[in-house]
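Practice problem 4.
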């Protein structure tokens, strides 16, 4: 039977929850499910990588956003805009989580270093030059993957979701 893990955030807020969750996926194999605690914040320094097909990341009980009970993933890495990579794997699922990119600068860069530092203290980290999407999914070996009931906001890269279909994928000749 495939493992299901209830993942508690790491005790030090500067530790990388993404690396620990990726390790659970890597060691668990296909059909692994990792569930996050409701209404709990998880800081991500790097990206959560889905490592096998038919793997799921979600919030315990799969609450809707309106309940305020979804687990919250925040991108906190200095040079990382992404949160989730579900590339080239079939049957992956991201269910009922709230992902915050923590961009927060709006349409313009801060006008001074002081303003930039103030915004960072408020948790608004700004753009990552050349940053990727919050969630990358799809690819030539992927089918039947889903993002269900999630809120994705304030990306630090160019978009919240980037999806490549099988027909859009480039092939070598």
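Answer key:
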């Amino acid at each position: 039977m495939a493992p299901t893990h209830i993942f508690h955030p790491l005790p030090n807020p500067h530790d990388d929850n993404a690396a620990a969750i990726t390790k659970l996926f890597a060691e668990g194999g296909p059909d692994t499910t990792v569930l996050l605690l409701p209404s709990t914040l998880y800081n991500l320094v790097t990206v959560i990588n889905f490592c096998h097909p038919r793997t799921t990341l979600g919030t315990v009980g799969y609450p809707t956003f309106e309940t305020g009970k979804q687990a919250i993933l925040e991108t906190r890495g200095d040079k990382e805009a992404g949160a989730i990579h579900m590339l080239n794997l079939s049957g992956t699922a991201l269910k009922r989580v709230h992902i915050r990119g923590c961009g927060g600068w709006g349409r313009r860069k801060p006008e001074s270093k002081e303003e930039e530092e103030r915004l960072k203290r408020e948790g608004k980290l700004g753009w990552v030059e050349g940053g990727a999407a919050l969630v990358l999914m799809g690819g030539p070996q992927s089918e039947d993957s889903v993002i269900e009931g999630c809120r994705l906001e304030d990306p630090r890269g160019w978009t919240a979701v980037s999806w490549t279909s099988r027909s859009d994928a480039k092939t070598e000749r």
